[in-house]
Fold JAB domain-containing protein.
Amino acid sequence: MSYMDLCRLSAEQLEALVLDPPGPGCELKGSDPGLLRLLPCGDAERSSRLRQVLCAAHELLVRVAHQSVVGRQLLDEPARVRTFLRVHFTGSDRLTLLVVFLDSRMRVIAAENMFAGSTCQLTVYAREVVKRALELGCVAVFTAHNRPGSDDTTPAAGEVQGIHTVRAALARVDIQVLEHYVVAGMEVVSISQPALP
């Protein structure tokens, strides 16, 4: 059985995979491991090809969404932020912290998953966020995390603590956290200053 990491394929290779999937002898790994479990089962070869096509298409969609926000003043367009976050977290089966790095004109430099945890727990290392923010030369960020398998956008105590830890660490190097979003299913809620429990 061969192995294919969708994250490492070029857009052209992903498009080719959508048009001509390799068949049941190829195992996929994508940016969203939970997506594979959501896809339909049935006839082994047909199901395998369908899964490959859908995973490759999802990976392309996530990349297009990321490319569409780079260089934009995203926070001025709340509907675009929500759409971007829904696409980014679609099908995710584990807690993930997304950090969107902004330049001095509040344009997106990059959007990166900084940490991924389990379905109910996420460990955040603020120093890693600070390190990446300084590497990119950003002046501000906004963050988001998902609530897999839930429609409840109320962040848990540990999630709020993680947000405050990141905010405090970035403030020490004069980088501001402008906003934090919680994504649960299709719901996206902005939490500017979540209160500690």
User: Anything to note?
Assistant: The beta strands are 2-5, 26-29, 96-102, 108-116, 140-146, 176-184, 187-190. Residues 44-69 form the longest helix (26 residues).
